[in-house]
Write a structure and sequence with these properties.
With 372 residues, the protein is of the alpha/beta class. The chain contains 14 helices and 13 strands. Helix content is 41%, strand content 18%. The chain starts with a strand and ends with a helix.
């Protein structure tokens, strides 16, 4: 009999979770033993090209009272949606996803996997200690925790307590590398420029200001910085670029449905984040044979076998030196990508999915043992 799996997250506005959960769903559904669906708590009118099996709420809660009420109302709504599924996977990063499922699990035994995509001890999701404590209780109550990297696993132990480590399994996010390699470059960019790209939400932890500061230290004015994404820090980035006299070198393309096209058209991808668990853009850029410079926040697990340049966080002068070096050294550029297939191997979908299938099988085996 086919086992039914449901992944629940808050919404589907781009980002790595949207991409990898769709990839996981497609691969799992190829196995005749399982069927995977995806459900959303909220609608923001962007489903990343797919239709969820349900959307609990058509509008976001606007104040704290309504958000608190929604946690409980969502648990009641989920009781009707979850019925019939054998395994529930929740986006473990998000309090608003974990808690309704946890509340429901208090009244009915269900198999729940928390899928953690962030470094929870470093991101400032929950400055309120009470909320953080309840979030940790919810995570600890679930059957299994899957972290997307060893970095996120270490971070979760620091966030929720070392005892949670016995419940953690590390499974890298799956990527269809052969499909990534087919991406065609955006055609309407200036080919005379040396193009450096950053991608992601324009928020503090992405730290794109670091690259703007590094750009201002470089004498080469033929550099163009392409910024893909939207967010609360956009005006601050523009103001900093103007103050440092590099605004004319910036190209803001906003949130795009073709990020791979911009990566393919660029020469260097830079990841400037202050915290990352497993940055998808680095894997995507590596698949497209791009030179990568990344801060030491999650990139080290990807940039193995001599691929890429890893630099300290918040060191604009070191970043500027790294950019200058890879631009001026053709041999170095070749060396940084020559072993890319070895570095990409752990993230290839055919190497990742068996771990998920073993995890699912183990949950059912444990249930069978508990009957005797």
């Amino acid at each position: 009999m086919t086992k039914k799996i449901l992944f629940i997250t808050e919404d589907y506005i781009c980002g790595g979770v949207a991409t990898v959960s769709q990839t996981l769903k497609q691969a799992i559904n190829l196995d005749c033993n399982y069927q995977m669906d995806i459900g959303l708590l909220n609608s923001r009118n962007d489903y990343a090209g797919f239709k969820p099996v349900f959307i609990l709420n058509q509008h976001e809660a606007k104040n704290k009272v309504m958000k608190l009420f929604r946690l409980f109302s969502d648990s009641l709504k989920l009781s009707r949606k979850i019925s019939g599924y054998d395994i529930i996977i929740v986006n473990g990063d998000l309090f608003q996803v974990v808690i309704p499922v946890w509340i429901f699990s208090l009244f009915k035994k269900i198999r729940v996997i928390a899928w953690v995509h962030a470094c929870l001890d470093k991101v400032k999701y929950y400055p309120n200690q009470l909320i953080k404590s309840i979030h940790c209780i919810g995570l600890k109550s679930f059957t299994q925790i899957v972290c997307v990297s060893h970095e996120s696993a270490r971070s979760l132990a620091a966030y929720a307590g070392a005892e949670i480590s016995t419940r953690i399994e590390v499974i890298y996010n799956p990527f269809i590398i052969t499909e990534l390699e087919k991406a065609l470059p955006i055609a309407d960019l200036d080919n005379r420029k040396i193009k450096i790209i950053v991608l992601g939400r324009l928020v503090a932890e992405k730290n794109f200001a670091l690259l703007i500061r590094a750009l201002s230290m470089l004498q080469n004015k033929n550099l163009q910085l392409i910024i893909c994404g939207e967010g609360s820090e956009k005006n601050a980035l523009i103001e900093e670029a103007i103050a440092l006299n590099v605004y004319e070198q910036l190209l803001f393309v906003g949130q795009t449905d073709n990020p791979l096209g911009y990566i393919a058209a660029s020469d260097i991808l830079v990841s400037t984040s202050t915290t990352e668990a497993l940055p998808s853009v680095i894997i995507e850029a590596l698949a497209l044979s791009k030179v990568i410079i990344a801060t030491d926040t999650g990139a080290r697990e990807i940039l193995t076998h001599g691929c890429g340049v890893i630099i300290p966080v918040n060191e604009p002068a070191i970043l500027a030196q790294a950019i200058e070096k890879v631009i001026n050294d053709e041999l170095l550029r070749k060396q940084l990508i020559q072993n890319r297939h070895l570095a990409l191997k752990p993230f290839m979908i055919e190497n990742v999915i068996p771990y998920w299938l073993k995890t699912f099988a183990r949950l059912f085996e444990n249930d069978a043992k508990n009957l005797y």
